[in-house]
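Here is one chain, start to finish.
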Amino acid sequence: MGILERIEEIEAEMARTQKNKATAQHLGLLKARLAKLRRELITPQGGGGGKGEGFDVAKTGDARIGFVGFPSVGKSTLLSNLAGVYSEVASYEFTTLTTVPGVIRYKGAKVQLLDLPGIIEGAKDGKGRGRQVIAVARTCNLIFIVLDILKPLQHKKLIEHELEGFGIRLNKEPPKISFRKKDKGGINFTTTVPLTHMDSDMVKTLCGEYRIHCADVTFHEDATADDLIDVIEGNRVYIPCMYVLNKIDQISIEELDIVYKVPHCVPISAHHKWNFDDLLEKMWTYLKLTRVYTKPKGQLPDYDAPVVLRVDEPTVEMFCTTIHKTIMQEFKYALVWGTSVKHCPQKVGRDHVLADEDVVQIVKKV
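Its structure:
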């Protein structure tokens, strides 16, 4: 029996099983087996065949955004109108067959846009070259799920299901579970919060399915069996996601007001270039980029080419290593102008956390 048949069998058994306290452990076990089979699909065992045509594109710029969606929802039109790159557009499905890259400059940052081929239902199982498409989506810093506004909900659920099955978690934070394997001592399960979904027997059952018999497991939030499986697997990626609802020229103003209330959604018209400003502004918020300007001694700051950092709390040390890794060897202190300091300029050390649009001057040891 192949992997796909085993996956179908487990999914059918999960659908048959009633969800209650008595069956929670059995369902958790099935979820763990399903996750293991999906991992085998993503990384097949044994030697691969000949090298096929690659989908991935060299990473350029400060961030990378992938356009994911079903065929003929307007991904290529959106890329052409945003980045000025020609991506073949036609009224039939599967016009785009490989990844088409484009670059836009926004607020001083270079953002790479990838128009990925349309995916179909069953893409996570390898249908329609979907596995290669979703593999490229895993490398993105932000995913635009492009939907046709006339049929968004069923498409949205299907695409989310395909991406979830491939280990991509959309608009989620990594679960606050610390998991550490050890050589002896059995499963040591502790929790800092009351749990409603899990207990020690469930944790031991899931660890036993992965043949882990000695580990320290600590829950810092009320997590589920799925969260623990994600932590044990360790190959999940947590990516912010925006739902781009295209073709708003085909609906009424009243419907548009309702659409605007849906979280993480931006309604646009790629053909007429409507609402692109809101799309780019939301894109900037979701990417969480920090621009830091350099200031040579005795000169004005260079506002044309900021150093763009992609972390939640960018420090002076990260800023220096982004410019060149040898700077920290001669680093003495830094002078900072901006919102991260109380007075300008302020003398700071390597651990100072920078804010967006700070100006930094590095002073080296003599």
